Amino acid sequence: MEYFLSEEQKIIKKLAKRISDEYVSKVAIKYDKEGIFPRDILDLLAYTELTGVYIPKEYGGFGGGVMEMCLVVEELSRNCAGVAVSYAATALGAYPIILYGKEEQKKKYLPKIAKGELIAAFALTEADAGSDVSSIKTTAEKKGDYYILNGSKHWITNGGEADVYVVFAVTDKSKGPRGISAFIVEKEYEGFYCGKKEDKMGIRASSTTELIFEDCKVHKENLLGREGTGFIVAMKTFDRTRPGVAAMAVGIAQGAYEHAIRYAKERVQFGQPLSSFQAIQHMLADMYINIEAARAMLYSTCRMIDSGAKDFSKESSACKVFASDVAMKVTTDAVQIMGGNGYVKDYPVEKMMRDAKVTQIFEGANQIQRNIIASEIIKEY
Ligand SMILES: Cc1cc2nc3c(=O)[nH]c(=O)nc-3n(C[C@H](O)[C@H](O)[C@H](O)COP(=O)(O)OP(=O)(O)OC[C@H]3O[C@@H](n4cnc5c(N)ncnc54)[C@H](O)[C@@H]3O)c2cc1C
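Structure tokens for the assembled complex are given below, as produced in the milestone run.
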């Protein structure tokens, strides 16, 4: 399908595809098996300047937006979503700075993130605060020029690998969500430790860890936005980064679909290739229809966001839900088409099915996205 990308967007997509096919595909199974963080691939993305595609020009980036970020994530995910999420989590950490950073904060962090010299992360979730993020317990108590952070975060992508973390903490317990603030925390700050690394079902090349804050001193200069605006910072960031999860899902689905077609044409049963059986053909046709629908929804959401629209929570959540459900269905069907070979680690679709699952869970589980969409559409009519 023709998506009428600009010439620059086509170049970005083509370059990301090349890196994905020539480099990511070679390491995907090994990195997944051994849980290796893809620093070499991130270095390559930095070398080719793809790390800066969504960073404004005045801070050393290419000056693109959510669309450019998603094109890179989609292409990397065609071969390994674990690699893609390691790249995307830096965008998740960078967007709060792009949106709410003071000029000095932007100048300090964004050019280095654009060059790939800094890896970022976003730390909101806690053990008792997943879907219910407003109930986080990590505290930030102001003492003189510093905030003292205490508590822990769970499930943090790029944990232990990132240089800079956007961390959400409670500055005023009495105010509920309006008492949450966001801080920029650098990896070497005193009292900041990385905890347990999670042993995950999928996206195993990415690092997901606990973070621990024990009297961690963060200078007031590192407060992001105003005190008490952390919940808004998080929600406005998610509006821009949930399409990144959709892009991951579209890429995974596309990768599984391509493997399934090739396999169906080669594998012969009953004297004919699998691709000659109508039951298989219909599965392939449904994969195509669903992937193109998800991609169309993703790209139009990206265009809406990048056009400067004010409110796009509904569209952002909808493309995340649709694409992640498509990825789960397509990868499950790809395993089915490949029969026993789909179910073993020698072929990539087994990994793709495991990788797809998380797209229905993180950046707000799909049930929560449906809650967001429902509340928006009910308000509209
Ligand atoms: C691999 C991975 C990486 C992650 N990376 C990050 C990261 O970088 N930074 C970060 O801050 N967080 C991160 N997360 C956390 C992620 O965003 C949460 O896991 C997610 O929001 C769900 O929270 P939970 O796991 O606590 O599930 P819970 O909130 O316990 O929910 C469990 C189930 O109940 C459902 N549920 C909960 N409440 C409702 C409701 N009101 N109505 C209907 N259903 C409901 C959910 O949809 C879900 O299916 C990551 C998670 C994973 C698995």
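The first strand starts at residue 120 and ends at 123. The longest helix spans residues 230-266. Further analysis is deferred to the final report.
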